[in-house]
Task: structure prediction
Amino acid sequence: MTQRNVRTIRARARVSTTFRHAAHVDHAANTVGTHQRGEIDFARGPVPECQQLQSKITVLDRESGSMNKLLFAVLFLAFGATGGYALSTQRANAQQAPSFVEAYRTLHAGRFVDLTHAFSPGIPHWPGFPNETDTTIYTYKKDGFLAQMFCHVGQWGTHVDAPAHFAPGEATVDEIPPKQMLLPLVVIDVHRKVARDPDYVLTMDDVRAWEAAHGSVPEDAFVAMRTGWSKRWPSQTAMQNKDAKGIAHYPGWSLAVLQYLYLQRHVTATGHETTDTDPGIAASHGDYSLESWLLHRGHYQIEMLANLDEVPESGALVMVTFAKAKGGSGFPARVVAIAP
Result:
């Protein structure tokens, strides 16, 4: 065997050994295997390509020993680049993947503000509804545990009105998507205007003023009208604010604002501190056209919110939760804002 043939066989052996090392990296971990050779990283590559390069190196080695060394360098660089690209792609994907742990830490560092009244018998409610009754049916002393029975209408206390409350065939409480229960919170503050005029209705000027200060109302937002009316809780008389003729006087929404928010800004839901969407004067005459318009569009609303003065007008989130009452048109809700 000539010296040249010996060099060729050795070159083949070196290539074969390197390829076998690259092909047997840990596939289960789905990671890029590397083989250190000086300062060059050799990464795993497709086996057929390795075989093709091995054949080329063998042929060229017969022609020139120096060319053999050059191609080895090219081989290492090519597979090193492939491995580096794969590794950088994995790292980029890991960085782009959402981290719910980090999101939790960010949210948990915020202020949690309860926007919910506690319910009990005798709280403010729509005049046509009966009062709540509570019964203790098991006691610690007699039974070793406590259990109570609460009897009230669905629209009780701080509560959700599902679209089905006014719109036949629309979503009931159990059909409201969970994705609609965590939303950007928008608070439009008109409490000073309401203090001067209890019959005040929200206007487009109020909305434009909010947008001038904070930008467009975000899509999918929960828009709350802050009137300060919740400070009258828990007095039914103060909440209804009726005059000598029995006409209620409390603030409400306007059709122009509701149409703008739902049809142009595409918000998900709205809420208020009073017992009705419509202002007191309209409700006293059986006019619930604003609430009907909203619910017939397939949106839910929250009534009798609290503590809106403790959250910013923009930049907070709101969690809106309630029991999954099958076929229910409404149910007491727990509404919590998360503010910076």
Summary: The chain has two domains: 3-96, 111-339. The domain at 111-339 is CATH 3.50.30.50 (Glucose Oxidase; domain 1).
